[in-house]
Amino acid sequence: EVVLTQSPATLSLSPGERATLSCRASQSVSGYLTWYQQKSGQAPRLLLYDVSNRATGIPARFSGSGSGTDFTLTISSLEPEDFAVYFCQQRDKWPLTFGQGTRLEIK
Amino acid sequence: QVQLQESGPGLVKPSETLSLICTVSGASISSYYWSWIRQSPGKGLEWIGYIYHRGSPKYNPSLESRLTISVDTSKNQFSLKLNSMTAADTAVYYCARVRAYGDWYFDLWGRGTLVTVSS
Questions:
Q1: Which of A9, A66, B15, B31 has the most CB atoms around it within 10 Å of its CB?
Q2: pLDDT category, B109, cuts 50, 70, 90?
């Protein structure tokens, strides 16, 4: 199965700063990479699909890039509500798999 | 507004069978594909399987031998049965909507239900 490795495990930043989160796949997943945000005690929420397409209601400060095995989620200027855990997921190969998450915390 | 709600026991004994139901409101269950996903501290998020109102479900091979996912269109529900439960199956179990056939990501999730396996 495709293993997704996210880095860093924890990212400590301040509001207003730029966040860059990485997701690396053990084999190519083409452009079929999805990002979710999960706040404490809540279910994951769809952020970006197929690398860079924002889901309904997701602000423009969230963007994604990459292809093949290396992907990046960028939050251009952190808002207080952005501090959460972020997961990537691939849909190119069965079984569907998720990364282990990056925790974005307030510095 | 479409909502998903998981229901089932919070505690299951080792070797027993877990039965969970996901009730869908605000949309016809026949219009989408639906999935179960679980989250545990040790294994993170794990896709369990998906179901459509027609055809066969698709399962994660790691769970396939113990797993049954089915749909009840009359009740607008789908369900999960996982037998031979062990402590490793302790997790929060989510039901989720698949965006569309071929778009195998999840655009709507239930709140999740914690299942603990313990005697």
A1: A66
A2: very high
